[in-house]
Design goal:
The complex is a heterotrimer of chains A (315), B (245) and C (121). Chain A is mainly alpha-helical. In chain A, 68% of the residues lie in helices and 2% in strands. Chain A contains twelve helices and two strands. Chain B has 245 residues and is mostly helical. With 121 residues, chain C is an alpha+beta fold. The radius of gyration of chain C is 19 Å and the shape is flat. Chains A and C meet through α1, α2, α4, α5 and α6 of A and β2 of C.
Chain lengths: 315, 245, 121
């Protein structure tokens, strides 16, 4: 069979909404794109544990602490599902983690921003998870089977993440003067980075929509971003807070909210490593990994010993 | 009688709460993702247990107090947790060994406490016992794995044993308020030691000969570590008092 | 034929100097094996593939499967098997293109490689 025919069969499957499974033939670029996207997604979950992890020890009530711990633990679990999905593409988790620790692999830039107050736990849940969920709901229908299945599982578990964030902010918004200020401040700091999570404007992407054609992605950056703005602009009314964008306004003709210009210079700088916390995040991951080295090695040696003893006994 | 029950319940709450707080420090920093999730699960279980105990204690106190008041507004000298639970994590060896010490103790304790004539205490013990069974297995397996694993892990376990052993005795030296538990602490200690010896033999870790144990946690005289923990733990409630969160 | 993907979506940041490249490195010496997890969520049902995880031994794999895939529900039954011992069939349409021995589903770095005569085309 010719490669062209293979590609034809492959595209035909995609068009007919048949999922691609690990052992199916796939174009090399499809494999690479999926591998990169899934591993970056996995890294994002794991690095995303850090800014929220900051507040576990200082959570203001036992209930909030339990929710926060459960949520961060979920993120670890989601990282694990995603690494597993990526591993079906022929790249081991250790290799992916090496790439993360060396700074070669990227993760979502949003986690390079600091979490400075308790209200940030609410804002991260509401805005960051809210943005992520739009992306993830779309990805439940992505064309690569293991990725789609991981996303279905993740979306099921994640439904409470955004809610708990909004709920935490709601309590603050109805609280003392200090609590209200804390709430508004967190929204001010997380709003723009959340919009950046969807990536550059469609008009700046020169490429034909290969990812759309392969149904890895099903909506463009701008479509998802607009969906997010429309959702948040309504929800914030319940909080009685404001979004830090004077240009935010309902556009009756478009039936969407208009919003102001995103600072792309900041975005690219954070991607490149110049964000407020890039170095700390990577340092924390490296430290955990390095300090875990002897633990992993010991468990491995013990497993070997046990196997050998079992063999000796059998002999 | 009544005040003993309150003190005892608060003691159980504080120990599980402080150990939960320690274990939660691993969340996001574990040696491998799977074990990060496992230790966080244990932290969550312990937090859940402590909330049950705090809520029960609050209900016994019959005033306006609640679980958060008890957890966040009492000082270091009022905390009644075991000294063992407030010791720093140091490394994975210390963490799993401490968890084993505690879980084995908790397991034997709750086995009896689930038959206590105070129905609420008995119910919490029965519910917690299921979780504790899991913690015990998890931590016991890790003690063996590290004790009998690599040369380095073996050495680290010896160091951990040396650091933590002196805090184990306190579990079995009853304070007056613990008499309400109806537990035979001497028998509890013997059972605990018997289990420990079996495990440590498999893990190739010797039991230290020193039997001079540190005490005081259960009556509010702690090591220097607790003050720092509470400073962080209570920061929000102390900075912004009388708020809903 | 090669596709250049420049579209930047969330979680898919540009390729230069980023993403998980695919050049193989030395495999880390402390890597724990990969295990496939099968769970029977209720008596009377079959065990169903739930996912995979890394563990040093079977006991650890089972405990972790409980932590990760069941959130420790009572009464479930868990099977774990090291992924290298799992054998899989090949999809039909590509039959002729695969090395027959390439049947380990846990890792297939080269399965998309075509036989030489096809590569020449």
């Amino acid at each position: 069979m010719l490669v062209q025919d293979m590609e034809q069969i492959f595209q035909d499957k995609i068009d007919r909404e048949i999922k691609i499974e690990p052992k199916d033939w796939m174009p090399e670029a499809y494999r690479k794109t999926n591998l990169r996207q899934i591993s970056q997604h996995a890294h994002s979950e794991v690095v995303g544990m850090l800014p929220e992890g900051n507040w576990i020890s200082r959570a203001p009530s036992l209930k909030r602490k339990a929710i926060l711990l459960a949520k961060i633990q979920d993120e670890g679990g989601h990282g694990l599902y995603l690494y597993s999905a990526a591993e079906t593409l022929g790249f081991s988790r250790d290799e992916m983690i090496n790439d993360l620790l060396s700074g070669k692999a990227k993760y979502s830039s949003i986690f390079n921003y600091p979490s400075l107050s308790w209200a940030d736990m609410g804002a991260v849940g509401w805005l960051v998870d809210g943005a992520a969920i739009l992306n993830q709901v779309m990805l439940c229908r992505t064309s690569y089977g293991p990725y789609a299945r991981a996303m279905v599982r993740i979306c099921k578990e994640e439904s409470f993440h955004q809610r708990q964030g909004f709920d935490a902010l709601l309590v603050l918004s109805r609280g003392s003067k200090e609590q209200k200020a804390m709430c508004q401040d967190a929204i001010n700091r997380w709003w723009w980075p959340s919009l950046m999570m969807f990536g550059p404007k469609d008009s700046e992407s020169t490429n034909s929509d290969q990812s759309m054609k392969w149904k890895i992605k099903r909506k463009t950056n701008d479509e998802l971003r607009q969906q997010f703005v429309d959702m948040i602009a309504e929800q914030i009314k319940t909080l009685g807070m404001v979004l830090p964008d004077p240009a935010l306004k309902w556009n009756e003709a478009r039936k969407h909210y208009d919003f102001g210009a995103i600072n792309w210079e900041e975005f690219w700088n954070v991607v490149k490593g110049n964000g407020p916390c890039n170095k700390q995040r990577l340092a924390a991951r490296n430290k955990a990994h390095d300090e875990g080295d002897w633990v992993r090695e010991a468990a491995k040696q013990y497993a070997e010993k046990k196997r050998n003893r079992a063999k000796e006994q059998a002999a | 009688m009544h005040s003993s029950l309150i003190d005892y319940t608060i003691h159980l709450a504080d120990s599980t709460h402080i150990l939960s707080q320690r274990n939660s420090e691993w969340c996001g920093h574990g040696p491998i993702l799977e074990q990060d999730i496992a230790i966080t699960n244990i932290s969550l279980d312990l937090l859940g247990q402590s909330r049950n105990f705090y809520q029960y204690a609050a209900s016994l106190m019959n005033n306006d107090t609640n679980e958060d008041q008890l957890a966040y507004m009492r000082s270091e000298r009022e905390y009644k947790n075991l000294l063992l639970t407030e010791q720093p994590n140091t490394d994975w060896a210390h963490t799993v060994l401490r968890q084993y010490f505690f879980s084995q103790f908790q397991f034997l304790l709750f086995e009896q406490l689930q038959n206590h004539n105070d129905p609420q205490l008995a119910a919490i013990a029965a519910k917690s016992l299921k979780e504790t069974t899991y913690h015990l297995r998890w931590s016991g397996e890790w003690v063996i794995r590290l004790g009998d694993g690599s040369e380095e892990s073996h050495q680290r376990m010896i160091v951990a044993m040396d650091a933590l052993w002196a805090y184990t005795g306190e579990m079995f030296i009853a304070t007056p308020y613990e008499l309400i538990s109806g537990i035979d602490f001497k028998a509890l200690n013997e059972n605990w030691l018997a289990k420990l010896q079996l495990l440590l033999a498999e893990a190739r870790i010797p039991i230290p000969e020193n039997t001079y144990f540190q005490t005081g946690g259960k009556t509010g005289t702690h090591t220097e570590h607790l003050g720092f923990m509470l400073t962080e733990l209570q920061y929000m409630q102390r900075t912004y008092p009388n708020c809903e969160w | 034929m090669s596709f250049q993907i420049i579209k930047h979506y969330y979680g898919d940041i540009p390729e230069e100097n980023s993403g998980s490249g695919i050049e193989k490195k030395e495999v880390v010496k402390t890597a724990w094996p990969l295990w496939e997890v099968f769970i029977r969520s209720k008596q009377g049902l079959d065990h169903k593939h739930a996912g995979s995880l890394h563990a040093a031994d079977a006991a650890m794999a089972i405990e972790n499967a409980r932590d990760v895939y069941t959130r420790r529900m009572e009464g479930v039954s868990i099977w774990v098997v090291e992924s290298i011992y799992l054998h899989a069939s090949n999809p039909d349409e590509a039959e002729s293109l695969y090395e027959p021995a390439n049947d380990k589903i846990y890792r297939h770095p080269t399965f998309y490689q075509l036989p030489d005569e096809v590569n020449h085309m």
